[in-house]
Design goal:
285 residues, 8-stranded mixed sheet, binds manganese (II) ion
Length: 285
């Protein structure tokens, strides 16, 4: 069973025997790049570590899964990252038995920084219990379609509110969207060059040995609250965007996800409305 761990930017998958904690996009080392530009921002790594170990001690999961973008630099490795990242994981390993990382687009060359016994999973994702998780900059693997719930990161969703005097406030949010399972399955089969033989459902059963179940997609807020993101209520609906200023990632741009009617919740669980309704609040009136 999948549930949000309100008020944290984390979720938990509970099965009879295991509890798996999910977080996304910590982007360790983001502030190091700012420091090089002369903007002093204290290191956020210890703050992130404290926040995460507090959750681990409270909920005692057997496993921790990070949905990508552990580090900030995309390909290179910053000097500070060489220290912060191995140290971060060594400390986490004292609080949880198993740690896995789904590779994000910022995680090239992450391997040399990881201590032993940390699993690095492909960006196309993995299945934990009845939940399929992936990073979100690329399509998930068709295997994930056998899970009712899919969870991704990558977007760092925030919503912006403006009052009439121009005061602006942004808040991190959870996004939950309905999926058109057949449409998503069709796309994923095509991307994997699997020819449809009979119905989509039959093809999935035959080639991937799964029953098509995926009906909902959650997008996790970033675990690093210092990090910004493009306010999702300032993006344009897919049909009006002409390829620009829309939500990022192929999945959210596809017709298989009902992004317009997705439900937005603040980290404390407050329901804000649908993306459609909230776009109006982002506009300058
Ligand atoms: Mn990403």
């Amino acid at each position: 069973m999948f549930s949000l761990l309100l008020p944290h930017p984390a979720a938990i998958i509970k099965n009879t025997k295991t509890r798996t904690l999910l977080i996304a996009d910590p982007h360790i080392g983001w502030e190091m790049e700012l420091q090089q530009k002369g903007i002093y921002v204290p290191s956020q790594t210890s703050k992130i570590l404290t926040k995460l170990t507090t959750i681990l001690m409270q909920y005692k999961p057997n496993a921790l899964v990070i949905l990508g973008d552990v580090k900030y630099t995309v390909v290179s490795i910053e000097l500070g990252e060489w220290h912060d990242i191995p140290d971060f994981f060594k400390k986490l390993q004292t609080h949880v038995e198993s740690i896995s990382i789904v590779r994000g687009n910022h995680d090239a060359n992450l391997e040399p920084m990881l201590p032993e016994n940390i699993a690095l999973l492909p960006a196309t994702g993995a299945v934990f219990g009845d939940v399929g998780v992936f990073h979100g900059h690329t399509w998930p693997s068709p295997e994930l379609l056998g899970c009712k719930t899919l969870v991704m990161g990558h977007l760092h969703p925030v919503v912006v509110f403006r009052d009439p005097t121009g005061y602006k406030m942004t808040r991190q949010v959870w996004l939950r969207a309905n999926l058109d399972s057949e449409a998503l399955a069709k796309t994923l089969l095509q991307k994997n060059r699997i020819k449809t033989a009979g119905s989509i459902k039959e093809t999935l059963q035959k080639y991937c040995n799964i029953k098509l179940k995926a009906t909902e997609l959650y997008i996790m807020p970033s675990f690093n609250d210092f990090l910004g993101g493009r306010p999702i209520n300032e993006t344009l609906p897919r049909k009006e965007s002409n390829g620009g200023k829309t939500l990022i990632g192929p999945v959210l741009r596809s017709e298989a996800v009902d992004v317009e009617n997705s439900e937005l919740h603040l980290l404390d669980g407050t329901y804000l409305g649908t993306l459609n309704q909230l776009r109006n609040l982002g506009k300058n009136n």
